[in-house]
Write a structure and sequence with these properties.
alpha/beta, Metallo-beta-lactamase, Chain A, 10 helices, 13 strands
Length: 265
């Protein structure tokens, strides 16, 4: 676990899982706003960091466990509004609901609520604009601080050259979202798994170009009659660490199928 700062942003870097130290998650806190809550498996370490922060608002980028695992604890310990994509509100509201028996043993209960993102989240110093960015998940939201050029990107960036996808990821949605982001002014990407990316807009452009060209090549091979296995061998012959670490949840097969299935070819 490591605390660092970038400009006015407090950053907590921690392993996603104690047994898998290679993959990190970065939690961001700025002027009362906490971006995501981190994985519950790291509860003890994360609580230590949260106790030093005055959390007044929580911005959820999407509903994967490593981003919302500590949401109930945050809701029970800070009087904070919790913002998420509209479609995620029902599930997250159930997660932060305080059990009836808790009032028997605790005198402090906060009325934290999960609500859809407003047009902007304001603090005394900053303004954060939520931008719907489906691709990694259908409920994914990035947060832009336009005056500082910060883009809190959740899991939307991670790498400009992905070779594996989760089953629900959509390359078509990624491309649409990347094209949308290209119209915004930002410099620095604050990624949930890669940390601070200073040349963030350029790296997002590289990701857009890569996804467009890769999808085109995969569709061509598919239309020529190549099987999925043959396309994988041709396009991505090397095994990917994340594929092995996730026991196939992230896979090259998911990636290449997303390239052609959404086009109807």
């Amino acid at each position: 676990m490591k605390k660092v700062n970038y400009e006015d942003i407090n950053i907590q870097k921690i392993a996603v899982h104690p047994l898998y130290q290679m993959m990190k998650v970065y939690l961001y806190f700025v002027d009362g706003v906490l971006v995501d809550t981190g994985p519950s498996v790291q509860r003890r370490n994360i609580i230590r960091a949260f106790r030093s922060w005055d959390v007044r608002q929580v911005a959820i980028t999407h509903c994967h466990e490593d981003h919302v695992g500590m949401l109930r604890w945050v809701a029970n310990n800070f009087p904070a509004n919790i913002y998420s994509h509209t479609t995620a509100v029902p599930a997250l509201s159930k997660q932060v609901k305080i059990p009836w028996y808790q009032g028997l043993f605790s005198s402090h209960q906060f009325e934290s609520k999960v609500i859809p993102y407003p047009d902007s989240i304001r603090t005394s110093k900053f303004e954060f604009l939520p931008i719907e960015t489906p691709g990694h998940s259908s409920d994914h939201v990035c947060l832009l601080e336009p005056n500082r050029g910060w883009l809190f990107s959740g899991d939307f960036y991670i790498t400009p050259y992905p070779k594996v996808f989760l089953k629900g990821e959509s390359i078509a949605s990624y491309i649409d979202s990347l094209q949308k982001l290209s119209h915004y002014n930002f410099n620095t990407v604050l990624c949930a798994h890669e940390g601070v990316v200073p040349n963030g807009k350029e790296m997002m452009k590289r990701k857009l170009d890569y996804l467009q060209s890769t999808r085109h090549k995969v569709i061509q091979l598919h239309q020529k009659g190549y099987t999925d296995k043959e396309i994988i061998k041709y396009m991505f012959p090397e095994k990917v660490k994340l594929e092995l670490m996730s026991f196939g949840s992230f896979s090259r097969l998911n990636f290449i199928r997303s390239c052609y299935q959404e086009t109807g070819t």
